[in-house]
Design goal:
The chain has 104 residues and is α+β, with helices and mostly antiparallel strands. Helices cover 28% and strands 30% of the residues. The structure holds zinc ion (ZN). Zinc ion binds next to strand 2.
Length: 104
């Protein structure tokens, strides 16, 4: 499952990323679980859960939610919220622009 959000952020004290700027974040989400009637989870339910979590942050600043919003910390925050929402094991990869990502 893949979704995107657009967010602002800055990294306090960072020489390049210390100025407020924005990224399109691509969020890739993989769930693991037991098949029940041929599915782990309906794609529609998965899509809705991912969208609901991401909607909290879309077009907002990560700095309102995290002290140091590196892609690693963003990934950790989203991973915890998705795990809580779905009660399933999941792997989350968050892309900050092209070619840079963190995974948990
Ligand atoms: Zn940045």
């Amino acid at each position: 499952m893949v979704d995107h959000i657009d967010c602002a952020h800055f990294l306090p004290g960072h020489p390049k990323c210390g100025t407020p700027h924005g990224h399109t974040y691509k969020v890739e989400f993989v769930v693991e679980g037991t098949l029940r009637s041929g599915m782990i989870m309906d794609f529609a339910d998965l899509k809705q859960a991912l969208h609901q979590v991401l909607a909290r942050y879309d077009h907002k600043s990560w700095n309102d939610f995290l002290e140091y919003p590196s892609v690693e910390n963003i990934c950790e925050l989203l991973h915890a919220e998705l795990r809580a929402a779905l009660s399933l094991s999941c792997t989350l990869r968050v892309w900050e622009g092209d070619g840079k990502w963190a995974e948990l």
